[in-house]
Amino acid sequence: MSNMSALALIGVLSILCQWGAWRMKVPAILPLLIVGIVIGPVFGVLDPDAVFGDILFPLVSLSVAIILFEGSLTLKFDEIRGHGRMVTNLVSIGMLVTWVSIAIASYYLIGFGWELAALFGALVVVTGPTVIMPMLRSVRPLARLGNILRWEGIIIDPIGALLAVLVYEFIIASQGAGWTQALQAFATTIGVGFALGFAGGKLLGWALTRNIFPHYLRNVATLAVVLGVFAVSNAMQHESGLLTVTVMGMVMANMRGLDLDEILEFKETLSVLLISGLFIILAARLQPDAFNSLGLPAVILLAIIIFAVRPLSVWLSSIGTQTEFKEKVLLSWIAPRGIVAAAVSALFALKMQQAGWEQAEMLVPLVFLVILSTVILQSLTAKPLAHALKLREPPARGFLIFGANPTARLIAKSLKENKFPVMLADTNWEHIKQARMENLPVYFGNPTSEHAENNMDLTGIGNVLILSPYRQLNPVVAMHFMDWFDAEKIFALHSTEHDAPARNQLPEVYRKRLKLFGKGVTFSKLASLTFQGAQVKTTALTESFHYDDYQDRYGNRALPLYALDERGHCHLFSSDQTFEPKAGWQIVALVSPEQESEEN
């Protein structure tokens, strides 16, 4: 197979794997690894070593450098302290306990030397948001537990990667040298990595805040500078580049006034185009006898990691917290490994094999075995376990409102007063700022971004209201959350006749959602009513005051938004509603000031 054919095949399969993971609601790492194994060792369609030859190692090395840099951009030190003692303990005490325990177990069971045992232990301490988030959406654990697992995955991703890099750097520095020489080489690597990483991060952050690069070059320039610093660091001190780019990302993540949203969003494109292809290549290099050679000791090690090491980490981390026994059980069971472990292990194995470490070839299949086993096993069993322990959130009845404009805030405040969880998302900072002043939960940014997936708390949210004027983004948001929630839980406003040509180009499944608050109710109409002073008003229906009476009294000067039945369930008014409000219900409507003055 030629280079061009191989690249085309990898590109197509990468997109298909991402699409399949999206449709099946599973972590993308699963189909990527499985497809790589199928086209590689199973059918022999792709042999990365034969196709890429000498460029395979630089390709993997640069890809891992990008993964580590982008991952470290998410580590804000304030977040470690700001998410409770349990999260702090898990990413510190828990990580160290996991590392040491797995290293000891692999030393005795697999027969690794202490160097490889320590490296393997460091590689598999990381869970990561890419595997945790899909699992949490399926399991729906109680909000407190979901936040613990979510933030553990986000924070331990870069910290665990830094640990693995430091262990690897020490192993390389100590190869063939006495302790004194090893410590000197390691100290030099640490010095170069931290100094160059700090300087590079500060310099790049300064350039971005001063708009040295034009807007269209910001992402590409950032990538080029990171790869340049990586190469310079390796030239100054052998194998120091990975540490340098990791430190560089951490420095930039904690710089005040530096807006990283666009760069973090650029990570999503890299993940699809570069990282997805990388995983197929790595999996295709595996050989069937590599797994067979692991044998029973690997199965025992896997059982120890899942059933002993993780519970020990959670129990020790919970000391001094208010975590209950059954909560510890669930936290102990959910710890799937992900992208950092797979990518970094493959690079380190390649480098150590070149350096003459005979057992290094066992590193990748062992790490991949841990990844596949934890993701598959826990994805299948975490939901029944949470249900049995009665630690699942009740059916989600809250609302994500895309738009934080004045009308959206009025509706959000009304829903919140009626005990419905709400979250407003908007890309308009002024609207978000005003919503915060009104004590409404908000997310500033694009709610379909990866940053939103990792940071926007949707606990208790099961419905989406599209109440924004952003004609281009509204369908994207609706289509995105149709895969999170049922399509019948997505509601959008009607488009104007002026937008008819554009509307007809939209997917039919979205056009069917253009029915919120009744036919012909557009964003412009809502904004106009709000501008004229309309307010949200609640009216109770009784045996002597029916819904027909309500309509006669208010006529066209009140726009019904939603109705609350006797059990407190919310029924949104729409152009195809099937419910009929009756006695005991409450009607919540946007009422014009003229009508209110007549009543008074």
From TrEMBL:
GO MF terms held by the record: antiporter activity
Pfam families, A to Z: Na_H_Exchanger (PF00999), TrkA_N (PF02254)
Domain of life (superkingdom): Bacteria
Coiled-coil regions listed: none
Name of the protein: Sodium/proton antiporter, CPA1 family (TC 2.A.36)
Localization per record: Cell membrane
Alphabetical UniProt keywords: Antiport, Cell membrane, Ion transport, Membrane, Transmembrane, Transmembrane helix, Transport
Cation/H+ exchanger transmembrane domain span: 13-386
Cited SUPFAM superfamilies: NAD(P)-binding Rossmann-fold domains
Domain RCK N-terminal: 399-499
Positions of transmembrane segments: 6-22, 29-46, 52-75, 87-110, 116-136, 148-171, 183-204, 216-235, 270-288, 294-317, 329-350, 362-382
Membrane topology recorded in Swiss-Prot or TrEMBL: Multi-pass membrane protein
